[in-house]
Design a protein that fits this description.
Helix content is 33%, strand content 27%. By secondary structure, the chain is α/β, with parallel strands linked by helices. The structure holds adenosine-5'-triphosphate and magnesium ion. Magnesium ion binds at residues 45-46, 88, 161.
Length: 237
């Protein structure tokens, strides 16, 4: 890990009213890395991503992107700096077409390396269906549109929240195959997953979360599967 990672989260706590969903979480993502966060339902994974893009009510601690604090800044401003989110549940506009949904990604004003044609290159099926409303697409195709929309913002860091949720294994394989290609285009990736196997297969490093805390981290091939499973499910010492 370099001394100046792209994303540096230090001692982050997230509150919803009095409820503390994250407690003292510290996570780094370096340039060119795919980092995954694994954890069961309610571990705080989505809260972590939402905190990065300024979408939780209250945080304590520090979130730095390229050395600049993101805390207290608005989402559009954060996206403009180069962070994009593929949200949990995709959040497309169902009656808008593929092309219209993707166009919303341009709002940020960043204009960079990733073009529409590049994105259709990752997901050729979207080109065929670009004039079709999003609600007529399969779940996997909708996920591709959500990816495309985030990539059009030309991020340096892509945050992905459970991209495999509700999709068939063959479609999940296809999405996961594209992640290293996206990384090779200069986009670092922070990937949230419940699926331990898939997520560790693609990650350079991982963190495991349980009940709002990080309880294990490392490189997938340097940590035993037993330790990962124990940390994932918790249990009594
Ligand atoms: N808007 C909110 N208001 C109050 N509590 C919330 C809110 N969003 C999340 N929480 C709580 O914070 C905790 C962490 O939720 P979060 O959605 O971050 O978990 P997660 O790891 O993403 O879970 P999942 O795998 O089910 O998506 C949970 O206990 C949840 O009930
Ligand atoms: Mg979640």
């Amino acid at each position: 890990m370099s001394a100046n990672p792209l994303l540096k989260i230090d001692g982050l706590s997230v509150y919803y009213g009095k409820f503390r969903a994250l407690l003292d979480v510290s996570i780094d993502v370096g340039e060119g890395e795919i980092v995954s966060i694994i954890g069961a339902n309610g571990a705080g994974k989505s809260s972590l991503l939402k905190a990065i893009v300024g979408q939780v009510p209250k945080v304590e601690g520090d979130i730095r992107f390229e050395g600049q604090s993101l805390v207290g800044r608005g989402t559009p401003d954060i996206v403009k700096q180069g962070v994009a989110l593929v949200p949990e549940g995709r959040r497309l506009f169902p009656s808008l077409t593929v092309e219209e949904n993707r166009t919303l990604g341009w709002e940020t004003g960043r204009r960079g390396g990733m073009s529409r044609e590049d994105i259709y290159g990752f997901f050729p099926v979207l080109k065929e269906r670009r004039n079709q409303p999003a609600n007529q697409l399969s779940g996997g195709q909708q996920q591709m549109v959500a990816f495309g929309r985030a990539l059009l913002a030309d991020p340096k860091l892509l945050l992905c929240d459970e991209i495999s949720l509700g999709l068939a294994p063959v479609i999940i394989d296809e999405l996961y195959k594209i992640l290293p290609d996206i990384r090779d285009r200069g986009v670092s990736i922070l990937l949230i997953e419940q699926d331990i196997g898939r997520s560790l297969a693609v990650a350079d490093r991982f963190y495991c979360m349980l009940e709002g805390k990080v309880n294990l981290s490392g490189k997938p091939d340097e940590v035993s599967r037993d330790d990962v499973i124990k940390s994932y499910f918790g249990g009594h010492e």
